[in-house]
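User: Batch of two.

Assistant: Item 1 of 2:
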Amino acid sequence: MKYHRWKINLKYPLDPAGAIVEDRKRKSGFLLNPAYTELQKPQRIHDLVRASEIIKKTIKDKKIIGIFMDYDADGVCAGAILYRAINWQGGSVKYYVPQRHEGYGLSKLAIDHLAKQKVKLIITADCGIKNIEEVKYAKSLGLNVIITDHHLMDKIVPKADAIVHPAFAKNLVNYSGAGVSFQLSRYFLSDIPRTKWLLDLAAISTVADIVPLVGDNRILVKYGTLVINKTKNLGLGYLIKETGLSEKNIGTYEIGYLLAPRLNAAGRLANPEDSFKLLVTRSRKEANILAKKLNKYNEVRQQQLSDAIAEAFETIRKRKLERDNLIIIEGDWNEGIVGLIAGKITEYYYRPAIVLTKINGKLKGSARSVKGINITAILKKVNKYLLSFGGHNQAAGLSLNQNNKKLFMRAIKREANKISKDRFKKILEVDALCKIEDITVGMVEQLEQLAPFGMGNPRPVLCVKKARIEAVQLVGREQKHLSVSICTKSGLCKGIIFDYQDGSFTIEVGKQYDLAFRVDINEWQGRRKVSLVTIDAKKSY
C-alpha cells in the first residue's frame, strides 16, 4: 500500500457518479457549468482600478512601461499577458526577464536596466510583494511602480503606487500570478472580446502554479482550455505543434505535464527570456525556433532530473533520512531542478523536503511540503539564518551563506520536530465505494462534468472491494508500470498502475484486491472502454 489508510466519503451510493457530483458541489460551492460572465469583477482586487488608471495615463502620456516578471511559467505568462494587453492599447513596452541566478523578485540590476531604457513605470508580474527596498530604490529614481502578485505577504509591504494582490480582499480566490495579470488587463481593456484571447496564458499559469481550481480559477481554466485549443497566440501554437498536441484535445493534464514544463525548462536550464519571447512573438520563424529550443531544454531537464533523483534517493536511503520530520539534502545539482527533486522526495516519502545546491559560494534551494504543513511559515521562524526566502504554503525558495548552514539546519530541524508524526500518515481521500458493475462509460462521462480537474478539485477516486486480478503485464519503456485486467459483468476491464516497480505493493494473478483508482475512457477503432488508473491496492480478506 502507498497510503496509511483510505478515507471513504460515500459508501455504495445508488448512483455513484451523481452522488460524487452533488457532494463536490455542496463542499466546494462551484457550479458545474459556470459562465464566463460569472468571473469576479476585477475591481474587487486591491488597487486594481488605481493600477489601471496609472497604466492608461502612462500610455496617454506616451511614456514607456517596463514589465518585470518571475522566471517560471506563471511569471512569463503573467508578463506576456500584460505585454500583449498594453500593446493592444498602443502602449510602448520594454521588459526584463531575470535569470534564475539573479534570484527571485525585483532587483536593482533590473531597475537600472529598465531606467536606462527610459522606462517611467515598472509593473511586476507574479512577484514584488516582498521587494520593499527595491521599490524604494525605483521610486528614488523617479519611477512609478505597480506590483501585481499573489504570493504570501508580510505585514509590511512595499510603498508602491499600486499593489494588485488578491489577499487584501475577503472571499477572493488565490489567483495565479497570470490570473492577477489577466484580471488587470481585462479591466483596463474594458473587457473587449479580444481580451478573451489572453485566457490561454491565464489557464496555463493557473494549472502550472497549482492554485486551487475553484471559483474564478475554475472559470479561467475552463474557458482558457477552450482558447488554447484554438489559440491565436503564434508562439503557443508552435509549442503545441512541437509537443505533438496539435490533433489532441488539450486539457489540464496536457497543460501540467507537457506545455508548462517546456515553458519552465528555459528558466531552469538556460534563459527564461526564450519562453517569454515565444509567447509574444509575431514572427513565425522566431516562434518555430523558440518552440524547438524549449522542447530541447525540456529533454535535457528530464535527463538531469532523472539522474539527480536517483542520486538524491540513494543519499536518503544511506543516511536513513526518511525517518526525519523534514528531509534536507545537498548536492551538486543544477539550481533549476532542485525544486523538482524536492517535489519528488515529498511525494514519495510524504515529508517536507529541502534540497540545496551551491551557487557562487552560497547555498540556494527549494522546499516542498505536504498538506497541512506550511513550509514558508517554518522558514520564517528561522529566517535570521537566511539571506532570502519566500513562497506558498507548500512550496518555497531560499538562500543562505555557507557559514550559516549548520545553524540553519539545526534550527529548522528543531522546528520540524514539533510536527506530530500523525501528519505524515498519508491518507487517500476516496470519493465513493462502489460495485464493479457501477463502472461504465456513462459513469465516467457523468464525472467529467466536474472538469477541469486539478488542485482543489482532483479527479474523483473510486474504490471497489474484492476485485479479481485476471492478468498482469509490465509495460512502459523501462517496464516500470503494471497493466492489470479485472473481471466485470461487461467483460475484462483494463487498468494501469504507474510506478509499480517502486515496491509499494505487489499484485498477484488470481488473487482478490481492494482497489482505489481513477477512471478514464480509452477509444480504439470507434469503441470506448473504461480504463482504471490504480492509485493503491490491498489484498481482500
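Item 2 of 2:
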Amino acid sequence: MALSSIIKKTCDQCGKVAVEKSRIQFGKSKLIALECGHMITEEVMTSSGIAHILNNTTLWPYQILGVEFLERANGKALLADEQGLGKTIQVQALIKLHQAELLPAVIVCPTSVTEQWHHEFRHKCGIQGFLCQVINSSKVMAAPGFDVYITTYDLIKEEKLFDMVRDKIKLVVIDECQRIKNHLSGRAKAIQKFCKDMEHVIPLSGTPIKNNAGEYFTVLNLIAPRLFPHYATFIERDCDSYHNGWGYKVGGLRNSELFHEKTKDFILRRTKDEVLQDLPKLTRKFFHCELDRKVNKAYAQSLKELEDLYYSEDDSFTRQSNMLAIMTKMRQVTAIGKVEQCVDFVTEFMMSNDRRITIFAHHEVAITLLKDKLNAWLSDNGFKPLLHLHSGLNPLQRQELLTTFKDTDHRVMIASTLAAGEGLNIQFCADAVMFERQWNPANEEQAEGRFHRFGQEYPVSITYMIASETIDEYFTELVESKRAIVKSTLDNKEVQWDQSSLMSELANTLIAKGRKSWSLK
C-alpha cells in the first residue's frame, strides 16, 4: 500500500510534475506558468443575480463576495469562513448558479450532518433539479439520475458504492475538512483518490487546522496540486518547526504574509468581526469554584502519580502516554467534583430568567451525575426533563432533538462537546456552560460556533466552569494561548510558537504550582 495518495499533476507537453511558478488572470481565463517552462490556461466561472438565487434566502453582501471568489477559483478553493457565516449557503448558491458545470456533486461530511445537508438542499434549492441521495450505509449504492450525493468520510472509502456514477461526478464538497488533516490517514487517502482527477473541489471548515500549519497540506494538495505537490517541500518551505522536548515538530507558518499572498486566489477566510458587525457579541466568562471535597483525595493521588512519573528516569514514549493518561484521569475527577457547582449554577439560571441553556460535557460518568441531579431538581420545580445530545443519536434523531429544544418548553440540554461541535445550528439558544475543557481549543470554538452564528438575536454568553487550583485553572491559560496561536495562523497574524508541547508545559505547571495545595498529608 502506498504511504500516501498525494495528488500530482503533470505537464501535458513534457510529462514532468507540473509545479506552478506564477499565474495571471485575463478576464475569464487564468494563464499559469510552470517551472518546466510551459504554460497552461484555466477557465473561470461567471454569473449574475447571485443575491436571490436560493429559495427563501437573500445572500448577504459578504456571501455574494464568497460565491464570486469561488467562481474566480473555478470551484476549486478552500472556504474557511468562521463558524456561523454560512459556508453551506455559499456553496449551494454556487451550485445552483452553475448546475451544468457542477452537477452531479458529492457532499462528503460527518455522519451527524448528512440529514442537515439534505434538508438544506431541499429548503434552499428546491426538489426540482436537485434530487439528493443520502448514502448512509455500505449497502446503499449511488444510483444514476441524482444531482447530489450526500455521504460520509467512512463511506467514501467504499469505492464500489460509486461505481455507477463515479465518472459523472463534477464537484466534491468536503465539509469539516479538518478531518483529513493527516495526509497519511485512511480518510485522507480515500478523499485524495476520489478527487484525483476532479476539476472542482471545495473543502469547507471554520478550523481547517487545529494544531499546526502542517495540517494544511492535504487540503492545499487537493485544491492546488501544482503549487503543493510534495509534503516535504511544503514543510520545508512554508512551515516553521519547534522542539517539544523529544524531537522537532511542525509549528506555525514560516512566513504568514508570503503564504497568504501565495494562497489568496484559493483560500478565503472571513471572521464575524469582519463581516457581521451587528452580530451579537460572544462573551467567555470564567466561573471559578472549589472542588468537591469528596474527590480531593482522588485528585491528590493522581497528582502524586504524575509527579512520580515526571521525575522518573524513564524518557520513553510510554512515559509520555502514561502522563497524558494521568492528566486525563485528573480531568475526569475534576469534572465529578464540579457537578454540584454546575447544578447550582444552572438552577439559579433557570429561576432568574426564561431562557434556554446548554451544558457541554465530555466524560460519561460526569454527564450521568449531571443528568440525575438536574432532572431531580427540574421535576421537583415543575420543569420538563433535560435533553441529551450525544454521539449515539443518528442524524435524524439529532435534528428532532434540536427541534424539540427549540419549539417546546424544554429549557436545558446536555451536549457532548465533540458530538455537538460540527454542523449543528443552536442559534436559538444564547447561553451555555462549558463544563469540561477540551485538550484542543478548536473543539471548544466549534461548540461555541453553534450559538454565535447567523440568526442569533441575543448576546451569546459561554461560561467556563473552572475548579480553582486544579488542572482546570492551570490548563485555561495554556489553552487560551494555543487558541490564539491557531487563530493567528489562520487569520494572517504573527505566530509565536512555544518551544515545548502543550502537554509538557501543562505537566510542568501542575508539578510547579499544584504540589503545595494538593500534597498528600
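The CA atoms of residues 279 and 456 lie 7 Å apart.
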